[in-house]
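Practice record 12: protein with arginine.
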Amino acid sequence: MFKKSVNKIIVVFMVLCLGMVFTGCGKSKVSQYEKIKESGKIVLGTSADYPPYEFHKEIDGKDQIVGFDIEIAKEIAKDMGVELEIKDMDFGGLLAALNTGTVDFVVAGMTPTDERKEKVDFSKIYYNATQAVVVKVENKDNIKSMEDLKEKTVGVQMGSIQEGIAKDQIKDAKIKSLSKVPDLMLELKSDKVDALIVELPVAKAYIEKNTDLSLSGITVKDETGGSAIAIKKGNQEIVDQINKTLDKLVKENKIEEFVVKATDMIE
Ligand code: ARG
């Protein structure tokens, strides 16, 4: 009887020891940053429908993803001493891709909102832009304030902050959310939506190419403003490393340079 319970205690003790060995293994696991360095590449998640931030361009007969976000991502990879691989996806799926490990970082003109900060970490803000409302040229004089958008159909990118802006700032707006910005522009051109909200540099890029589109005079309130790079939570070394690259780029005035270069590339 006594012996049996001693045996039991020994078994329980052994199980506990094994458990400790396993958790010990867990602790010594390599960080994501080490994994990136070992594999020799870092995977960027982006949504290449947002010129001049990121967009497709045919160069020497080959489709390529370019833009100032891409230039920044290249610098980040270079400073880490690894290759850059780009994954183009829907904007609304980027943070999930980050959290499942499909991509290592997201550079997509993404605004670091409090809601997103609950899911992922962000670098410092690397670029600031205001919001703009795009309309058809012929409607420019009728759509001059958020008031004028009352009961109108407003297009926004799915999962973007513009979705929230439309909901909060337009009374009784009918909101149409689509995955890709070029599709939104087509909806506007064919009068399926009355207006679109995007960041100002993007609005300008599309208007430049589409003479039937115009900026409306509306000023959009947006306190969150600015773009930052998203990283999966719990990887402070990657955040620090990315911030180091951003500091360097800001100091050397490179980001402005990248923006000018990317804007020139929009055909
Ligand atoms: N700044 C906005 C946001 O964070 C829109 C960004 C859209 N970016 C893109 N690559 N399509 O929601």
